[in-house]
Amino acid sequence: MKRVILFNWPKLVGSTLLIAGLLALAAVTQGPLRALALCLALTTLYFVVVSLLATWWVYDDGQIETLQWATPGLIQPASNIASVHVGYDDTRAGLLDIAMPNDITGLYLPVSGGGPWRHKSLLRAIAHDDRTSEQPLAVATEQADRFDTVVFGFTAHEIRDRTQRQRALRDARSLLRPDGTIVVVEHPLNLANVIAYGPGAMHFITEGSWREDFEAAGLTVRSITRQRALVSAFALVAALPTDS
To answer: pTM here?
Structure first.
């Protein structure tokens, strides 16, 4: 949860100031305007508190970043693994907790879009743990059939352009060995995440849209593992060619 606060502190400060302003307005007004100000203040307070509690419950208490829950039986000793990240916070440490792979490679996935606020949040995160100097995913495709597992740990949703997201998934597929697996770990846009994160959940992507992206990238969902209703891990394999 510390990283969430570190990367998104301007939103927390803004929400706190908004609550204070609304409470001040309620203190000097009467009738419907006072009721509206109180309602908005309480709603904002609810989402601030609940979103932080949900983040602690999933990431700290649930130790979700170890990825042990997301990759049951998928990662074997002496395997070659790629961890795709957007410049910071890749999943290599969590993958090492599962097995001792022969090789774990970090692959950088440059992203754009999402609005100026999201861009600044990413820049703060990258400044804290800069990994942008690592090999880009698109360049790594020159070495096909290289990895047993490619992991997108809370990464793919940062690609806001759908065509680019599908291209990144296709690039990852080209890196797989014939029996390899792609693991995409994400917060899906569902009721549980809307209750927990409110408007912030609109940054997530529905499971149906994910399935469409996977299909467009030539991938088939092998299994879905869910964690505490807020996170899903999609295990994907290359789709079999169909007879024309």
So the answer is: 0.84
